[in-house]
Amino acid sequence: MTFALHVYRVLTSALSPFLGFVLSARVKQGKEDFSRRNERMARHLPVLRNNGALVWLHGASVGESRLLLELGNRLLDERPDLMLLFTSQTQTSARLMGPMLPDNAVYTMAPIDTPAAARRFIRHWKPSLCIFGEGEVWPNLILEAEKAGAKRALVNARMTEKSAQGWQRFHQTFRALVGRFDAVLAADEDTARRLANLMGKPVVCSGNLKSALPPPSANDIELRRMHEGFKGLRKCYLAASTHDGEEALFLDAMKAAPDAALIIAPRHPERGPVVEDLLRARNIPFARRSRGDVPNMNTRVLLADTMGEMGIWFRLADAVYLGGGHTPDVGGHNPLEPIRLGKPVVSSPDVFNFADMMEDLSERGLIRLLKTPKAIGRALVTMAPPSSSSLDLLEYEADAPMQVTLEAIRPLLPEKGLLE
């Protein structure tokens, strides 16, 4: 164990006696769910619903959870004898995952990364394989999983140059954690290069797993209701997965379409009150979805601050402004879902999390990366939908990263019928 890892374990161990107080404080701040405190401390955890070998899939938030859910479903298609455990760090992802779980799966919030909580978690679940999504490197959980003999994989790994420089000072620690993983797959070539430099060995670039995610589904009855009651004969423009400041930018951009219906779907629905204050300050007629407001033809903006309905908003929209590119340190969001539904998409050039994908899509004319509200508004109003041939090619290519990932994961699975 490196000196840095030893220090980390000592410091997080010192936190353990105060974990209850820390969680209570976070509950009061709205950062934790009171009903899930035991999960965060790895106490009173649920029991397995069958005796199959367990694969644990962990991602930080909504995006990572969705791609791991798709990966988990693919694994179950091949190996229905497996049991899956999903964990994540945020309340938003917890609410999303519950109703989407396959039959052979359970979900809990991830434990806080103290040695004691990590040990309880691993001893309770006894995973045969641990799959971490994108950048979830939690030392105590990884070390406890290794001690228990579990295989470990990092999939869809993403690392910025800034993060790589930070880890470079602790490259021995990084090698002690991730360097001993059984499989490491990078989402892009830049990440593969950075990881290879840190670990001192080649890293496979699978491509971004999010390309394999199917577009979100939509309730046909609700979609028709929104068409008839809200959109009508108007054009409709959607601001999807927005962060602080991006709603105001979108509203400025849509001065280019003063008669259009607008939808704002913040990335984090709990920001609904903040967006509502913005709309009130601008004296814009709006309806708030989470409150049960019913929009009509006189409603300028539908504030879609709910979970699980993005499929409706994508299909209702004539064009989409995708958030995450105008907010520092976010790095953009996955553009493939609206594009695959045939929608013109605009985002910002600051999309480092999807740099390779955005460059490729931009070269194909499937997305435009623009900075100013005026340019964004003009593009949303004038862009043509993707051609059918472009969409056919995109569909053909989309599943390749998933196939590469599955190929790397299969040898790590326990033999069928073998319990660890």
UniProtKB/TrEMBL annotation:
Site feature location: Transition state stabilizer: 134, 210
GO (cellular component) term, any one: plasma membrane
Reactions catalysed according to its record: lipid IVA (E. coli) + CMP-3-deoxy-beta-D-manno-octulosonate = alpha-Kdo-(2->6)-lipid IVA (E. coli) + CMP + H(+)
A Pfam family this chain is assigned to: Glycos_transf_N
MF-aspect GO terms: Kdo transferase activity
Subcellular location: Cell membrane
Domain of life of the organism encoding this protein: Bacteria
Biological process, per Gene Ontology: lipid A biosynthetic process; lipopolysaccharide core region biosynthetic process
E.C. number: 2.4.99.12
Keywords for the protein's UniProt record, in alphabetical order: Cell membrane, Lipopolysaccharide biosynthesis, Membrane, Transferase
Domain 3-deoxy-D-manno-octulosonic-acid transferase N-terminal span(s) in chain numbering: 38-211
InterPro entries: Glycos_transf_N, Glycos_transf_N_sf, Kdotransferase
Location of the active site: 64 (proton acceptor)
Role: Involved in lipopolysaccharide (LPS) biosynthesis. Catalyzes the transfer of 3-deoxy-D-manno-octulosonate (Kdo) residue(s) from CMP-Kdo to lipid IV(A), the tetraacyldisaccharide-1,4'-bisphosphate precursor of lipid A.
Protein's name in the database: 3-deoxy-D-manno-octulosonic acid transferase
Organism: Hyphomonas jannaschiana VP2
